[in-house]
Specification:
With about 260 residues, the protein is α/β, with parallel strands linked by helices. Helix content is about 45%, strand content about 10%. It is built from eleven helices and seven strands. Helix 6 runs parallel beside helix 10. It starts with a helix and ends in an 8-residue tail after the last helix. The relative contact order is 0.18.
């Protein structure tokens, strides 16, 4: 055991940063990172900015950047180049719809996103219930640009965005932003896909010779799978164009040698 720990410490010459794009299986993966840290004599740190996915910076964590595991809802930054950078991605349309419903509770039941809610409610009162009647309301959200678009591309390009997804100030990406995201793919050591989650975890373990016991998949969101599938079918075209750069970037990610399938 001591020999394995020594080898891990010698192999892990840089910190590992997990950039967590919302609704990509990050809750489960963070629980795995925590177990890895405990079982391999490493340190695990999580941090973030309230209500905002800001550029990654070590100043938000402990000062020691050696042999540590870092995770948070951040976007790419120059400091990421100092680390072994890993992330998870997901089909952009499914991820987008998942964000709509996952953050609806925060929008309606808490005060965490009140500054956006007050503006949004001047145009639309939301009452989403995971049925096809939601399609009309979601189309209104598209019409007024009240949802964060292209979260995947913004994460890779290093463009901060509202964490709670319902926003009155969605930044619309440019071609230059997309090009920056595409260029930054080279800095990622491992890119996993939620559809191949177990393969991603196995690759991580093999890459660093981590010890890891069994783990459980976590799902913090309760949803009607049949209804959500029907809503995705109805809104697929609108989601596609609203997140056009994410669609393009996902195609590039799948060509990347560090994409795990």
């Amino acid at each position: 055991k001591l020999l394995i720990v020594f080898y891990i410490l010698m192999t892990l010459t840089k910190p590992i940063i997990f950039l967590h794009t919302p609704r990509t299986g990050g809750s489960t993966f963070n629980s795995i990172l925590e177990k890895i840290a405990f079982q391999n004599s490493l340190q695990y740190f999580r941090a973030g900015i309230a209500g905002y996915n800001e550029k990654f910076a070590f100043k938000y964590f402990e000062p020691n950047k050696t042999n540590n595991l870092y995770s948070a809802h951040f976007v790419f930054s120059e400091e990421c180049k100092q680390a072994d950078l890993i992330t998870l991605v997901r089909d952009p349309v499914k991820m987008f719809i998942s964000n709509i419903y996952a953050h609806f509770g925060t929008y309606t039941k808490t005060n965490l996103n009140n500054h956006n809610k007050k503006i949004i409610e001047t145009k639309i009162r939301l009452n989403l219930n995971q049925t096809l009647s939601d399609v009309v309301q979601i189309n209104k959200l598209f019409e007024y640009n009240f949802l964060v678009s292209n979260t995947l591309t913004k994460t890779f390009a290093g463009i901060p965005y509202d964490k709670f997804f319902y926003t009155a100030n969605d930044y619309k990406l440019t071609q230059n932003d997309y090009n920056a995201a595409k260029k930054n793919l080279q800095y990622f050591k491992l890119i996993g896909d939620t559809d191949f989650f177990d393969l991603f975890v196995k690759k991580l373990i093999l890459t660093y010779l981590f010890k890891l016991d069994n783990y459980q998949l976590l799902n913090s969101m309760k949803y009607n799978a049949k209804n959500i599938a029907e809503i995705i079918e109805k809104l697929h075209k609108e989601c596609f164009y609203y997140n056009y750069f994410d669609i393009l970037l996902m195609k590039e990610i799948k060509k990347n040698n560090n994409y795990i399938i």
